[in-house]
Design goal:
Helix content: 55-70%
Radius of gyration: 38 Å
Distance between the termini: 92 Å
Number of strands: 0
Largest sheet: none
Structural class: mainly alpha
Mean pLDDT: 85
Low-confidence stretches: none
Shape: rod-shaped
């Protein structure tokens, strides 16, 4: 029974090792070692407890009826295997994580396609070291200097420009 129970929950260590980041390989090896030690200890024990030789004890114990009483209590003792109450929660968490992963994949696909469009646009441009001011204005109209429609003050950075609430000194 123990072997069947362990075989059902066996772990694919090779597949798990592929997903472990390099800086956590040591911790992963420690975890795998502890798991292997536990599995060996479980497998060393038999599936069922060994039978008690009650006749041997009856011949050795001088108190009459004591061994019979122990035998009766021992055979009446049934220790139930604890019920599994958390597997459904773990399965629910697993499904939740799978849906989050699928959502992340979809969102990542959308981001990748957008980045590929941006990359295609950037590769279609003339290299910056070969661009003229007119080429820059054509490629980036919102960033280029436009002295007629959007005049600015030197050094032409946004933080150096007067805002809509700025009043020149001397005027009230």
């Amino acid at each position: 029974m123990a072997a069947k129970r362990i075989a059902q929950s066996s772990i694919n260590w090779a597949q798990m090792a592929e997903r472990v980041p390099p800086h956590q390989k040591g911790l992963f090896q420690q975890f795998k070692s502890k798991s292997d030690q536990y599995l060996r200890r479980v497998m060393e024990n038999p599936e069922k407890a060994p039978e008690i030789n009650w006749g041997f004890y009856k011949s050795r114990v001088p108190v009459a009826g004591m061994v019979d009483e122990f035998q009766k209590q021992y055979s009446a003792l049934k220790i139930p295997y604890p019920p599994d109450t958390v597997s459904s929660q773990i399965d629910a968490q697993e499904q939740e994580v799978k849906t989050e992963i699928e959502k992340f994949k979809r969102e990542s696909g959308a981001r990748i396609s957008e980045y590929e469009k941006q990359l295609a646009h950037l590769t279609s441009l003339i290299p910056f070291d070969q661009m003229t001011m007119e080429d820059f204005r054509d490629a980036y109209p919102e960033q280029a200097l436009d002295p007629i429609n959007r005049p600015t003050f030197w050094p032409h950075r946004p933080e150096d420009q007067p805002g809509p609430n700025d009043v020149p000194s001397g005027h009230h």
